[in-house]
Amino acid sequence: ENKAHWVLDVVYKEDECAVTDEWGAENLAILRRLALNLARLHPKKQSMKGKLTAAGWSDEFRDELLLGV
After folding, report:
1. Nearest-5° Cα angle at 68, 41 to 26
2. Per-residue pLDDT of the chain (69 residues; tens, 9 = 90+)
3. Domain residue limits at 51
4. Rg of the chain over CA atoms, in angstroms?
5. Helix axis angle, 59-67 relative to 48-57, nearest 10°?
6. How many domains does the chain have?
């Protein structure tokens, strides 16, 4: 396994994902990688899991991640 998969597994528990539909699993993987890359680009010094959790709770922080404002 590579580093990207390890991060996805730690942050999203990707190995425990119960999606059985091939297309659904692929779509979720794409969205997870997109969110992870947006979180990496954000300058805030915080863990990936912390950034993504903050984006889930805060509309303002989510806008910062998605729109770069």
Report:
1. 60
2. 566 666 666 666 666 667 778 788 788 888 888 888 888 888 888 888 888 888 889 899 889 888 876
3. 3-67
4. 13
5. 120
6. 1
